[in-house]
């Protein structure tokens, strides 16, 4: 039987007196591509941060590749890529300097992939030599994605990775995710509010509500199983769209 890559057990987190994660149990299996959904403020970022050990939970346990997330070995850290919701790039560096810095931290770094992405995603020489603070929000988001993909992570965690990207940028990112990442068997967890994008890549979805995973399953099965009865009894039920399902589960 497959062992989960990520395991969260009874995780609790509150800010002040407001509970955000409320005894949350969750497992991520190898090769899963999970879209994490929830209303604004439901706690998606908090969950992803606790999952990665970037934010200390108030209770419960989190393991990644069987290791306690608060004591991850360097070897395990090197297997994880993360794109935070808010840019954490070193804004005073140029993109090239920042990427060189991260390259030095990782035992494995895919130069060919990084260079190909930089070229495909519009980082010409002038842009590569400009301080990151002078790049647009979308360019910074692309750079954060390139940085996370550099070490060929086996587990990729992305917090609203496409929120600042225009439709062309989103399409390019999704193509990279599908062709370059998912096909290699990478495990991916990503939060998004753009349901149409999620429908193109996520095989599984998980809904966060009231501090727990309220529903999780394969996207097509969830949609197939969820129907709205229209009209009089006996009238054929209509399958729900993902948007309908989102509203139904998270309201
Ligand atoms: N550092 C903090 N201090 C106090 N409250 C916080 C802090 N970080 C988050 N919160 C609160 O915790 C709740 C969950 O926030 P979080 O950012 O995890 O939600 P989210 O689901 O990612 O939201 P969104 O979809 O809007 O990005 C919110 O009510 C937020 O205001």
Automatic annotation (TrEMBL):
CDD domains: ABC_DR_subfamily_A
PROSITE patterns membership: ABC_TRANSPORTER_1 (PS00211), ABC_TRANSPORTER_2 (PS50893)
Family matches, as InterPro entries: AAA+_ATPase, ABC_transporter-like_ATP-bd, ABC_transporter-like_CS, ABC_Transporter_VariousFunc, P-loop_NTPase
Keywords: ATP-binding, Cell membrane, Membrane, Nucleotide-binding, Transport
ABC transporter domain ranges (all copies): 6-235
Record carries keyword Membrane: yes
UniProt KW Zinc keyword: no
One Pfam family of this chain: ABC_tran
One MF annotation (Gene Ontology) recorded for this entry: ATP binding
Record-given protein name: ABC transporter ATP-binding protein
Species whose genome carries this gene: Massilia litorea
Lineage: Bacteria, Pseudomonadati, Pseudomonadota, Betaproteobacteria, Burkholderiales
């Amino acid at each position: 039987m497959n062992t989960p890559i990520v395991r969260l057990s009874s995780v609790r987190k509150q800010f002040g007196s407001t509970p955000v994660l409320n005894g949350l149990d969750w497992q991520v299996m190898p090769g899963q591509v999970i879209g994490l959904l929830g209303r604004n403020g439901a706690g998606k970022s908090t969950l992803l941060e606790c999952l990665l050990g970037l934010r200390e939970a108030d209770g419960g346990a989190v393991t990644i590749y069987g290791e306690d997330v608060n004591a991850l070995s360097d070897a395990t850290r090197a297997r994880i890529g993360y794109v935070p919701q808010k840019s954490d790039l070193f804004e005073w560096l140029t993109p090239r300097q920042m990427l060189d810095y991260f390259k030095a931290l990782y035992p494995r770094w895919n130069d060919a992939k990084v260079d190909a992405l930089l070229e495909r995603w519009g980082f010409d020489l002038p842009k590569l030599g400009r301080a990151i603070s002078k790049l647009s929000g979308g360019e910074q988001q692309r750079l954060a994605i390139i940085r996370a993909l550099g070490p060929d992570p086996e587990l990729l965690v992305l917090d609203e990775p496409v929120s600042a990207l225009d439709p062309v940028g989103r399409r390019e990112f999704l193509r990279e995710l599908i062709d370059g990442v998912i096909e290699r068997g990478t495990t991916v967890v990503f939060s998004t509010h753009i349901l149409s994008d999620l429908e193109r890549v996520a095989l599984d979805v998980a809904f966060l509500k009231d501090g727990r995973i309220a529903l999780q399953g394969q996207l097509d099965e969830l949609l197939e199983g969820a129907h709205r009865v229209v009209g009089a009894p006996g009238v054929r039920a209509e399958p729900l769209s993902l948007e309908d399902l989102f509203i139904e589960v998270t309201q």
